[in-house]
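hey all, quick one before standup. I had two proteins in the batch that finished overnight and I want to keep them in one place so we stop losing track of which output belongs to which input. First protein below, input sequence then structure tokens straight from the run.
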Amino acid sequence: MALSARLEVRQGQGLVITPQLQQAIKLLQMSNLELEAFVETELERNPLLQRDERDNEADEAPVADSAVTNEHAADADARADMDITYDEASPGERATGDAPEVADAAAADAGGAIDWSKAGSGGSFDRDSELGDGALTREKTLIEHLQEQLAASGLRGPDLMIAGMLIDAVDEGGYLRAEVDEVAERLGCAAERVETVLGVIQGFDPVGVAARDVRECLMIQLKDRNRYDPAIAAMLDNLPLLAKRDLAALRKVCGVDDDDLREMIAEIRGLTPRPGAAFAGGEPATPVAPDVFVREGAGGLWNVELNSDTLPRLLVDQRYHARVSGQTKTDQEKTFVADCMAQANWLMKSLDQRARTILKVSSEIVRQQDAFLAYGVEHLRPLNLKTVADAIGMHESTVSRVTSGKYMATPRGLFEMKFFFTSAIQSSEGGEAHSAESVRHKIKQLIEAELSDDDVHSDDAIVDILKAAGVDIARRTVAKYREAMRIPSSVERRRMLKTPA
């Protein structure tokens, strides 16, 4: 077969990802701190952008607030305001691919529903690295160190929320600055459950973290070294005597001789009264600013409002643009001014659309999880990205980007939006599905109610009890949840109950 060269014309579809579309995607997934850094860079780079220093925030904010009951009625208006267009790009700006359905994003002008599922999280901006340069060299904070351990702790659902709130209340020295009863009241759960989760956190590194006072901090460290006994416990109960060096009183209280007392004092001196001090050299912890406020309104409704303090307020200086445009002489100058104007207008539209999207997603989350807000952490409903995406007419990837790194301030505390998404377990009676977290809680309650070895429930028995309560669950799922909560098997629990205390 002879080889020959020939010309051939083919028709196909390709995806055009312009820098403007990449920018819109990146803005949507940025946290408020990353967005602030990005806007600062744009203000330095684009002379046509200015900060809006006027006081009438209500007139300039793209979206003021939204009642949960009206979020669907506002969808049409929000989509109509997107006004996103796709300009013809040069060959260097085109990114072709084999996914023709993604090209339908160009219809966003009319419908407003942009499918960003095929657009990667990366981009071609030269400024992208500026946002993360400091993250590679910055020291890890104590809170970040604890959060990494929390992710590997096996805690799920309500326990994970409780742990997150407790970790947020740990100060730079490593001490817990929140009352257990207060946390339990805010989350609508039992104080004993908060104590149990606190015990898990107190097992994290550094040893002694999340203690409520110096005595508890030292006690945790001594238990970790297997050096906690009644004598040294008595010394911890009388730390003021140790501070005054009243050795005679300490010997009497602890019931030890001089040699043992010296050893105990040396043991105490070898401990760390500030377990978080090792992380003091890093950046000070930055308080998390909520992106959305949720407040209870009249008639049991919940009002969702964007945090205007985290929204950039920019203006395009039209007067300066008109003056500069009249003084341009070369084609290069005209191109520069035109590019600055186009980028400034696109940035304004992208910021407005980002705010509207966050409001729509958060409003739907509140509508789905209103039972949690009203009654507490035990009433979380099963929720996934698809449910929210279908309700507001967006793609799942868009909802995922919106909920990542965004925080919601509620009467029960500050939560990342992703915390409200929980898996579902079907009902055995064909009714409403059960949240996986609520099922975990039921399993834990059944096991905690075991008072003797005769009351111990096997995994099969728990399955039968849950099915009788309307929860369709498999035995392997019960075993998985039990192991995730670090609860031993029925054989081990029966053995523990038989062993005398």
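OK second protein, same deal, sequence then tokens:
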Amino acid sequence: MNYENVQSAHLKGITTITINRPKKLNALNKATIQELHDAFDEANKDKATKVIIITGSGDKAFVAGADISEFADFDVKEGSKLSAQGQDLLFDFVENLNTPVIAAVNGFALGGGLELAMACHFRVASTNAKMGLPETSLGVIPGYGGTQRLPQLVGKGRAMEMVMTAGMIDAEQALNYGLVNHVVEQDELLPLAEKIASKIMRNSSVAIGKAIKAINANYKDGKDGYKVEIKQFGKCFGTEDFVEGTTAFLEKRKAEFPGE
């Protein structure tokens, strides 16, 4: 599929999605959000894709925020709809994909950009990365899940401070907060993400998808994460990957998971 604001490339089990609006510092507008949804959906449905990496084009920004010009004149109803549609179409969608998603944060990840990174299953960052939720400086709050995912990742107090001050933190502080898993020089960022992806691909894609469901359940209201874990654990026993994994272990050989 061809996109205007997004590039998608597949190589050796990894689909890399690149937000490609460098003149706008890869800011998210409606068209880009829709294209990202389509690119993620396409990659997730492709059995050859075992891991998805999302990054931004250029060396300045992952995503510098939302395109404010699109909603500066919105009223209450339009603002609520913008938030609800965005969460459903992209941010919640990414979080709940069966295929693991790694955010490779290069440069600025602000507002909707940080919210997108937080919706991914985990994050790695370049040393020049700057992250923050500056929405309160515009008279609004994060609307794409930022007020929920940030405290889950860094704790309530740190999240409150970041949102209230509308300030940015650098990559090392993000690492200290647990917002990102690793920090490397910018030219090492994608190779690191690909190295982690290669480790993930050694394991059962079916089991990984079920693990994502179980882990996410812990953060959803009305969900008993332990019960979800029990259910997903049990389902693993009915998969070809389970048969192959246990057989390979007993035969003392490397498993060749069919992904079924």
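Flagging for whoever picks this up: The two ends are 26 Å apart (CA to CA). The domain at 6-200 is CATH 3.90.226.10 (2-enoyl-CoA Hydratase; Chain A, domain 1).
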